[in-house]
Write a structure and sequence with these properties.
Blueprint: E1 21-26, E2 30-35, H1 40-56, H2 61-74, E3 83-89, E4 92-98, H3 99-111, E5 117-126, H4 135-147, E6 150-152, H5 156-169, H6 174-187, E7 191-201, E8 207-218, E9 224-235, H7 247-273, E10 277-283, H8 288-302, E11 306-313, E12 319-325, H9 330-338, E13 345-351, E14 354-359
Helix pairs in contact: 2-3, 3-7, 4-7, 5-6, 8-9
Length: about 350
């Protein structure tokens, strides 16, 4: 016995939840974090998990619970593919995460092949300057497409009227709500992203302050789902090659603000539509027996699906509305609907979380 004190080795953290992850930087394509995990693998898994559960899908436990097996298999278990860089630092690791790829994978998991169609309507101003090109709208469009969403192109003339209708609908105006629903049908849009943005020269005239705000509105109901906003300052220090009073720097500040807004918009869309619940309206329902055949036929074909009829009206609209909870995609629901024995059903509309059909 030598009398030397034996120092036990430091604990090996295999559970990434034991580590502390802190945000360092965020933009539309990447997220930089630090992790106190002891192991590289735990640092990677923990950082990716933190990004999803504490930033993208925070306060969306229903969505996380619904898709956790798929998220685990396709993202958590393959964390290496979402980490762009990992650097050991004193008592921590520095990691750069591919935010675009993570969001795109989440969109694929939750929506399948038919993702939400988003109509983006943005006003843009550089105060005291001529109207600029649409830097914000362009950046938002690019980011949403990279994430896997579908973007609806709205003509400028229609966009102005539609903005007014969406804003009036938020006050409960019945006529405006109907106009928004009608426009959603005509444009085949699941969501409207109503944006305002402006840039203003800083007091010291060393750059610009920019702000971008978006409201996300559900097309089918004209219901406000979420609001997101981002402020940013861009100065001569960040862009030394640009004139601090130039329109180019003003546009760059708007673009940067938009790029930081886009991931939060995507997160809100995932929270609002991420739970695997579909709405089916069937016109010319005809009878109670037809309603029951649809419920039984969908349950049998979709395996484990929950199907309930929320409304049923034979005298007035001759229609029924069903709510379907299933991880199968909307195309699978449509195929199951067409194949119900003893019924002839024609599917007339399909969107990411809704179907419309007629009995023949």
């Amino acid at each position: 016995m030598t009398g030397e004190r034996v120092v036990p080795p430091p604990p090996t953290l295999t559970d990434e939840e034991d580590a502390v992850v802190r945000l360092q930087a965020w933009n539309s394509a990447e997220v930089a974090v630090t992790s106190t995990a002891w192991e590289r693998g735990a640092a990677k898994r923990g950082a990716v998990r933190w990004l999803i559960e504490h930033e993208i899908l925070t306060e969306a436990k229903d969505v996380l619970e619904a898709w956790m097996p798929e998220i685990t298999a396709r993202i958590y278990d393959k964390a290496d593919s979402f980490v762009l860089e990992i650097i050991p630092r004193e008592e921590a690791y520095y990691l750069r995460l591919n935010l675009t790829q993570v969001v795109r994978e989440l969109v694929s998991i939750t929506f399948g092949k038919i993702t939400p169609r988003v109509a983006v309507l943005t006003t843009e101003k550089i105060l005291t300057r001529p109207a600029p090109d649409p830097a914000v709208q362009t950046a938002i469009h690019a980011a949403l497409l990279q994430y896997g969403f579908q973007v609806v192109d709205v003509e400028q003339a229609k966009a102005v009227k539609l903005r007014e209708s969406v804003l009036q609908a938020e006050t409960g105006d019945a006529r405006a709500i109907n106009l928004v629903r009608q426009a959603a049908g005509e444009l085949d849009a699941d969501l409207f992203a109503l944006g305002e943005s402006f840039a203003q020269q800083r007091e010291r005239r060393d750059g610009f302050d920019a702000r971008v705000e978006y409201r996300l509105v559900e097309g089918a109901t004209a219901r406000l789902l979420a609001s997101v906003a981002q402020d940013i300052s861009l100065t001569r220090a960040e862009e030394p090659k640009l004139d601090p009073a130039s329109l180019v720097l003003a546009k760059r500040s708007l673009q940067r603000a938009a790029e930081r807004t886009a991931p939060r918009m995507a997160a809100e869309m995932l929270k609002s539509f991420g739970k695997p619940v579909y709405r089916l309206r069937v016109w010319k329902i005809g009878s109670y027996d037809n309603r029951e055949k649809i419920i039984d036929g969908l349950r049998d074909a979709l395996g484990g699906a929950t199907v309930t009829a929320t409304t049923f009206d034979l005298r007035g609209t001759n229609s029924a509305v069903f709510v379907i909870s299933t991880k199968r995609d909307v195309d699978s629901i449509a195929r199951a609907l067409r194949a119900i024995p003893g019924l002839k059903v024609k599917v007339t509309e399909i969107s990411c979380r809704a179907l419309v059909a007629d009995m023949e």
